[in-house]
Specification:
heterodimer, A: mainly alpha, 7 helices, 0% strand, B: mainly alpha, Helix Hairpins
Chain lengths: 175, 102
């Protein structure tokens, strides 16, 4: 009974702010609603017995990605163009398509006989670490390279381009 | 009510549909990015739920961890692109970046 209530609370904590994320006109409100959705997903991980992933979700998403998103929102002032009413003809096709996708997914979820049974929950961190160093060692190394490349790419993309600074560098290089 | 796999899959389907709607309907690039994050989280919930209820192992959780890493990399690059867009066009709306059309 308690278990059911906890699941319902987590599901609501995940889905209700997500509705706010996609519908809010104010992008800052959407960012803060995203915070609750990500917390709800972390709670769902914990509910599923994935303790390591729940903490990772908190640290990477809530502590990293979300802060990055909010910084970007606050560094980019959106002018009054956002005040314009959304045309209904622009919103209806995506809404219909998304509802259709949800309908199909829900139909599949309810129609299929999943043959599911819960595995007993146990601490996962040690096993994840061992797997990352054995079975998944190559994906693990590749993903670290991808992350490094993405960080360098992001730094280059947002670098302030000052022609005179480039000239100075060129002169120094030639000298 | 016995909480099982279908409940998690339903929550994840709702998250995915909402993210899809955000990606298709929103004009603000940051909002589009939030939609992408919602969809990635939906996929992750599916990974973890299947690994708990069907596979009874831990591989789904490891894949979900990889997805989290790639989502972080994607967010960093995408937000850098948003900032560059803002610097060059003075707006973060996706349909202002259309100079290739002209």
């Amino acid at each position: 009974m308690i278990r059911d209530l906890v699941f319902v609370a987590l599901a609501l904590l995940t889905v209700v702010p997500a509705v706010w994320v996609v519908s809010s006109r104010n992008i800052v409100h959407a960012g803060f609603a995203l915070l609750f959705t990500l917390l709800g997903v972390a709670g769902l991980y914990a509910f599923l017995g994935a303790d390591f992933l729940a903490v990772t979700q908190l640290m990477v998403y809530v502590g990293g990605v979300l802060v990055l998103v909010l910084f970007t929102v606050m560094m980019t002032h959106v002018p009054a163009a956002g005040k314009r009413r959304h045309g209904l003809d622009r919103l209806v096709p995506p809404a219909v398509f998304a509802a259709a996708v949800f309908g199909v997914l829900y139909k599949v979820v309810t129609a299929v006989e999943w043959n599911a049974s819960a595995a007993p929950a146990k601490a996962t961190t040690a096993e994840i670490g061992a797997r990352l160093m054995t079975t998944y060692i190559f994906p693990f190394e590749y993903v670290s390279i991808v992350l490094l490349a993405a960080m360098i790419g992001a730094a280059i993309l947002i670098r302030e381009r000052r022609p005179e600074a480039d000239d100075e560098e060129n002169r120094e290089a030639q000298a | 009510m016995n909480i099982g796999l279908p409940h998690f899959l339903t929550v994840s389907a709702a998250l995915f549909a909402l993210g899809l709607f955000a990606v298709m309907a929103r004009r603000n690039t940051v909002a589009i990015l939030m939609g992408v994050e919602l969809m990635l989280n939906a996929a992750n919930v599916n990974f973890v739920a299947f690994s708990r209820y069907v596979q009874h192992g831990i591989d789904g959780q490891i894949l979900a961890a990889f997805v989290i890493v790639l989502a972080a990399a994607e967010a960093a690059v995408a937000l850098a692109i948003v900032l560059a867009l803002y610097r060059n066009y003075g707006s973060v709306h996706a349909d202002t970046a259309q100079s290739l059309k002209r």
